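Below is how a single chain appears once it has passed through the pipeline. First comes the sequence as given, then the structure the pipeline wrote out for it. We keep one example in the README because the format questions we get most often are answered faster by looking than by reading.
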Amino acid sequence: MNVKSATSSPNPIIRPPAVAGAFYPAAPETLRRMLEDFIRAAKNLPGVTPKAIIAPHAGYLYSGPVAGSAFVHLRNQKDAIKRIVLLGPSHYTYLDGLALSSADAFATPLGTVPLDKSTQERLAALPQVQVCDQAHAREHSLEVELPFLQHVLGEFTLVPLVVGDASDEDISAVLEALWDGPETRIVVSSDLSHVHDYQTARHMDQAAAQAIETLDPIALDNDQACGCRPVRGLLCSARRHGLKARTADLRNSTDTAGGRERVVGYGAFLFS
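Resulting structure:
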């Protein structure tokens, strides 16, 4: 997808990649090969057509194998999916509520993804939503999901939301405004436990997975998931819509590529 296909604006505003070459390869062919390796190795649960997924957002060497177990289930539905609502936590900017971007498109080494501007204009009327480009400029929690989405879906439009200090119900209300039909899918970006030893990380991640599978936002806190807020908002909406959550993969950085002393947890979850 090129810039011309990404937006009809004569001078489009493109949010450039901030972590290409750091969190994932900057060379397109290297990136494509890595993504396909993750997808081919992923656990594919037959018959699962998720409305929403949770995927991790660390460097691909560590979290990519787990993320593949979430995104492979969107590839199975690529012809039906036209829009992705993408939420992730703010790592660099204090933010009151949720932040949209003023950009026309987001870029990765694989091309550009157009933003759904009409939907964003509608969302901006909500009191908990603002436009804040600073929140998006360096944020990796959204960016690292985009190459996966480009690889498995091809063309789609995007509603990217960085989540700051917002209540479960405020986040869920935004999701309700975007829910729509099978053409829209929701991706929440979150890692799980951070910098514990291996056994502690496993225990904490299993507790987080149980909270997600039982759609219990109260049982999930910031120590268990860095994207706790958007995950909790999703759990509220999933319960409201009668969705069921399944764990597709649950591993940590020791299981994929790291040591045993400062472990980060990763989970892939499907809501259908």
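DSSP finds eleven helices and eleven strands in the chain.

See the next section for the split statistics.
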